[in-house]
């Protein structure tokens, strides 16, 4: 019985951590089936900007988290501009806020990942032990760069992913559900989040937010290989959030405890109860 209650508690925390992605997909669905007075992508941009402001006003997100999420937006937009240019996918329909085939709202799909990470960090009381910031950041940058360079040189995502696994082999993430403390390998959390992002991508393409070349005429399931791509992108997303969290107690919230422990020793706050 306790296990079932814990599963329900875990599910509820995940749901409330996904408020921004949930509202984003609601906007995608409504804009697909409801006639709008302006272009769909223009309306979605205004909608996402409004969501971001609302989350800050009602204090669902702090200004630091909004800044991190804005960083996600820029990183994602840069990737979108390149991928659309080389024909990896396309955005149907015209819009005033569309640049080089990419609507500016597209960056918010990456920002939604950032919002989830920030929300989950707080709601699950996340702590990360034995994090290696420099090496993890290097591999995250390599992952991002490979999404561009594999157009001209061999795709190196597998060796990069293996290298990242080596770097993260002793890194654990601790989280709280109810009265119980749990832990899992950080690399495993990347894979799990990547899987659910792949599912979300299927919904996004079904709602015609964007299309892969084989989905232009008729919708098809997004290729499972994208699951691995999303798992790798999550690592880059995590680095952005962890960079801020590792400075807690020093950069801001003086007297607080950093939620990212970069030393090899586990603090008492990082110990799991079960």
Automatic annotation (TrEMBL):
Keywords: Membrane, Transmembrane, Transmembrane helix. The keyword Membrane applies. The chain crosses the membrane at residues 12-32, 38-58, 65-82, 102-121, 133-153, 159-179, 186-207, 227-244. InterPro entries: DUF817. Pfam families: DUF817. It comes from the Bacteria. This is DUF817 domain-containing protein.
